[in-house]
Amino acid sequence: MTTPVLLDAERLRARVVPNGPYAALDVVTATGSTNSDLVSAAGRGAVDRTVLIAEEQFAGRGRLQRQWSSPRGAGLHMSILLRPNVPPAQIAWLPLIAGVALAETVTRTTGITAALKWPNDLLLGEPDEWRKGAGILAEAITDPSGTAIVLGMGVNVHQRREDLPARPDGLPATSLAAEGAEVDREEFTAALLLAFAELDELWRRDGGDVVGSGLLDRYRRLCGTLGRQVRVELGADEQLLGTAVDVDEQGRLVVRGADGTTTSVSAGDVVHLRPAGPPVP
Q1: Which of 60, 106, 108, 240 would be 232's cystine partner, CB 3.0–4.6 Å?
Q2: Tens digit of each residue's pLDDT (9 = 90 or more) over 41-65
Q3: Which CATH number is 66's domain given?
């Protein structure tokens, strides 16, 4: 990896903060976890659409409290504090909406084919040879101002593929650079922030309705899990085998078993989602 070019906080703020869509943005050199920092900031009254970016994270958190780290300037480590006024049942859609914004931004700015592994892992490369390039984690908290969501995104930008750690679900890791893209992290960060703000505003304006807003259809088009044979590991030696046939209005994955019955699973119930065979014709 070449010497990293660090982000310019003032330039980023000038692009996304004055007159919206974001209320505040800060860039720190290093921290344990931007999600943890924004959870603390929310308790101190941080406002809706506050953004925190770290050049280096040494205790980043993924699903099921898995920890990871990344060298300075190698990736994009960003969290956004959100206080959306939508029905509570629709809050689970926020990380999926962020996945749509991320995949669409990658394809638009780099030309790389991007898809989503349900619920919101970024897949890069070609079908049947997908590699993970980013992850998203949303955490709900209750503070004096009500319910808030801290949405974290970790994107591999400049890392070499061989420098990325093995993943517990067996999906190979990659980065935008490893897929052949030359990326200006500052331009990419601004593009992603603006893309997410546009989708977030659309979602809020429609009261969290992912059907009426068209967000469910956009997610389905990007979801590389659909149409594939999968093994859903639910923990305690329990698993579900079948074909992923849909994502429903609650953001759940719908799996059809060999006997034709369908089961809907939510992200919070799943330990691992693994491919179990080729796409179903």
Answers
A1: 240
A2: 998 999 999 999 999 988 655 544 4
A3: 3.30.930.10
